[in-house]
Design a protein that fits this description.
The structure is a single chain. The chain has about 375 residues and is of the alpha/beta class. The protein has a domain at about 5-190 and about 230-255 and about 290-305 and about 330-360: 3-Layer(aba) Sandwich (Rossmann fold), CATH 3.40.50. The chain contains 12 helices and 14 strands. Strand 1, helix 1 and strand 2 form a beta-alpha-beta unit. Helix 1 packs parallel to helix 2. The radius of gyration is 19 Å and the shape is globular. About 45% of the residues are buried.
């Protein structure tokens, strides 16, 4: 069967990683159907801009997205039954360590219950492969580095991390019961064009460009294994196409960078002096992340190609060209301030098809 005859259902398809992954799969000839609930963790126009980016790309492909909340089990089952996907790429989640501390029950509902609905629908409709987006957060403050997939991960230090580990476990249960191949991918601090506004590199870039202070938590020694989005997506595609049995893979850059170094490099890429707003370390943040890529390289052929300096340069170029289209609450021309979990999201978003979202103001956005 050719790729053109295979449908892949991508959850979180309008988001940062999801839109890049959906675009890459379409470029490889797959038919892609997206799912996203457009919740107000950040303004929906950001996601609409992401979809417009795909439509304005060199291949001119339009991504149809069904507006469904993954916690709505019947709606998810109906969609999977209708679409009959060859594989499900499950990227939708409530993300963020600190918000999860404030809303742990909601994070558990979306990230664990929602994942279970998708797994059950996959089994009932004979989906051949399932890929689950996990996180390096599951390693907690493990003393041993680099982090290996075989390391113990029984001590997550945030509700978000706990829900991602729970997702990995329920994925294993479905592999054990039904032998549906499942790959769990532990992402390590992904960055690049279309990055969410709450993530450090995008947030810091916006502040530095505006000449505003950058929040600097702790002494600057905490480190992260930053991974450029194109490398992450390459790993996703490899895992999906090679999925067999039950596997967990690290998808990182395998080159940790301290907070101090990150901010200095970002200041160089932007060409502006950085003003620091020094604050105490934050609850729930891990000290370091560092991916051991031995398994992912050996089984998937995964090898990151874009280093931090090059990746920051690409991101800043994208931000300079298109950042004005992605406004934050409170900015001139930006959306009104919203809570990150709406009443509608708490109770279920109404399932409906939004088709191809291509708002007029963003129909010329393109990837950096």
């Amino acid at each position: 069967m050719s790729n053109a005859q295979k449908t892949i259902l991508v959850t979180g398809a309008a988001g940062f990683i999801g839109s890049h992954a959906a675009e890459a799969l379409m470029d490889r000839g797959y038919r892609v159907v997206g799912v996203d609930n457009f919740c107000d963790f950040y303004d929906r126009t950001w996601k609409e801009n992401n979809l417009a980016t795909i439509a304005a790309g060199p291949n001119g492909r339009k991504l149809a997205v069904e507006e469904i909340d993954i916690t709505d089990g019947p709606a998810i089952h109906h969609l999977v039954e209708k679409v009959k996907p060859f594989a499900i790429l499950h990227l939708a989640a409530m993300a963020g360590v600190r918000p999860s501390i404030e809303q742990p029950a909601y994070y558990a509902r979306v990230n664990v219950e929602g994942t279970t609905h998708l797994l059950q629908a996959a089994v009932q409709n004979k989906v051949e492969k399932f890929v689950f987006a996990s996180s390096s957060s599951v390693y907690g403050n493990l003393a041993k580095v680099p982090f290996s997939e075989s390391d113990p991960v029984s001590e997550p230090i945030s509700p978000y991390a706990a829900t991602k580990r729970a997702g990995e476990l329920i994925c294993y249960t479905y592999w054990h019961l039904y032998k549906m191949p499942v790959s769990c991918l532990r992402f390590f601090t992904v960055f690049g064009p279309r990055q969410r506004p709450d993530l450090a590199i995008h947030k810091f870039t916006r502040l530095i460009a505006a000449g505003k202070p950058v929040p600097f938590f702790g002494d600057g020694s905490t480190s992260r294994d930053y991974t450029y989005v194109d490398d992450t997506v390459d790993g996703i595609v490899r895992a999906l196409e090679r999925a067999k049995d039950y596997r967990i893979y690290n998808l990182g850059g395998s080159s940790p960078v301290s907070l101090t170094t990150l901010i200095n490099e970002l200041g160089k890429a932007i060409g502006k002096e950085v003003i620091l707003d020094k604050r105490p370390a934050q609850m729930g943040d891990v000290d370091r992340t560092f991916a051991d890529l031995t398994l992912a390289t050996g089984e998937l052929g995964y090898l990151p190609k874009v280093g931090l300096a090059e990746g920051l340069g690409r991101f800043v170029k994208w931000f300079n060209e298109f950042g004005h289209l992605y406004r934050l609450p409170g900015e001139e021309g930006g959306p009104q301030l919203m809570t990150y979990v709406s009443d509608a999201a708490r109770n279920f978003s109404r399932p409906r098809s939004v088709g191809v979202v291509t708002p007029g103001k963003a129909d010329h956005v393109k990837a950096g």
